[in-house]
Amino acid sequence: MKTEQPTLDPLLRAAVDRQLTTPLLLWMTGHRPLAFFAGQALYLAAPMAALLGWRDAEAWAGLLSSPNAMRTLEAALQARAR
């Protein structure tokens, strides 16, 4: 199932503006093995999330379910921090 890429810019901008780049990178590194399971859980929760107004749940599920998801997020955060 191919889904669209979620918009990462607001999340990355908020992390950089609040100077949370390093803690967020540490958190992502520590939780890298759980990313696939989080993505699968989001696939299950996507219908309920859509009812509650969060339309990007399925896009985030697709991103987190990919094998290199956390590395992609880490690289995007590091690039935004520079």
List the helices and strands and how they pair.
Blueprint: H1 9-17, H2 21-30, H3 35-51, H4 57-65, H5 69-81
Helix pairs in contact: 1-5, 2-5, 3-4
Written overview of the protein:
The chain has 82 residues and is mainly α. The protein has one domain (9-81). 71% of the residues lie in helices and 0% in strands. It is built from five helices and no strands. The protein has helices at residues 9-17, 21-30, 35-51, 57-65, 69-81. α1 packs across α5 (69-81), α2 packs antiparallel against α5 and α3 (35-51) packs antiparallel against α4. The longest helix has 17 residues, at 35-51. It starts with 8 loop residues before the first helix and ends with a helix.
Structural class: mainly alpha
* Helix/strand order, N-terminal first: HHHHH
* Structural shape: globular
Largest sheet: none
Question: In terms of quaternary structure, what is this?
Answer: single chain
Q: What is the count of distinct domains?
A: 1
Give the strand tally: 0
Average pLDDT rating: 89
Strand content: under 5%
Number of helices: 5
What separation lies between the terminal Cα atoms?
A: 33 Å
Percentage of helical residues? over 70%
Weakly predicted, low-confidence segments: none
Rg, rounded, reads 13 Å
